[in-house]
Amino acid sequence: MTEAIRGFWVASATPLAADGSVDHARLAAHTKQLFGKGVDGVVLFGTTGEGTSFNAGERVATIEAMLKAGIAPERIGVGGGFPAITDSIALTRAVLGLGLRHVLLLPPYFDRSVTPEGIEDAFAAIIDGVADDRLRASLYHIPQVSGVAIPTTVAANLRKRYGKQVAGLKDSSGDFKQFQAFRAAAPELAITVGNEPDIARAMAAGGAGTICGMANLLPELVKGMIDGKAVEARMQAAADAVVKTPSLVATLKAILAAQTGDTGWLRVRPPLRALSDGTALKRKLDALMAPAIA
């Protein structure tokens, strides 16, 4: 499990305390509950986890708390993308020192005019700056959110330059042709998908598994897809009900609050705004889960 992220990983939501800090105890409990339902690992501070709203120190402190709670380091990945390369280097060095190996790296975002060569330079600067053979980085492709795509040539070149230090790529574009292009250009990369309805066909086409947000809510349904069960229609309907809302993160947290009876899950960091109630959406997902997955 340590060479690359494979199998069933969750892009975890980040629970917050009343003062807006990360609620470490709630996050550890959520993680352990997911592990009990067949999840292999969690990625913290990705898109679903409001990652860009947390600085490097907050991310490191959260990982330290997770380790103290008994979560094994090989089952934790962390979002390590920042606009500043030096921040990515500092965070990555810190988490490697704590025993983690999996860091998801966004291309530096905000400047939408960067060239493929510039994107490759940025990733190379991070890896060279970290200078640690323990690193097993996954490139993170989510251009509809970050505004900067990872060209297939860049993924292939980085794998050739750094070998196992560039272990994988998470494709959250939602475009299956893009997944296929990454597979063709860089077949040695462990490519996971973030778009849940694509999980089964991606794995059939040589994909490594998934890192996805819907598993916070419906781990059994995602596990069914991993196991090859015919639940794609249910997953598409569930994803449509959550992902197509104005704020994915606020919606997902509101449903978690309704599922658990814990209103603390409603909290989000600005500029997001919390929803007041997720009961109606919870009922919609409950209906999709009946009958139980056999």
UniProtKB/TrEMBL annotation:
Chain coiled-coil ranges: none
InterPro entries reported in the protein's UniProt record: Aldolase_TIM (IPR013785), DapA-like (IPR002220), Schiff_base-form_aldolases_CS (IPR020624)
Keywords: Lyase, Schiff base
Lineage top rank: taxon: Bacteria
PROSITE patterns, A to Z: DHDPS_1
One of the Pfam families matching this protein, by short name: DHDPS
Family, per entry: Belongs to the DapA family.
Protein's name in the database: Dihydrodipicolinate synthase family protein
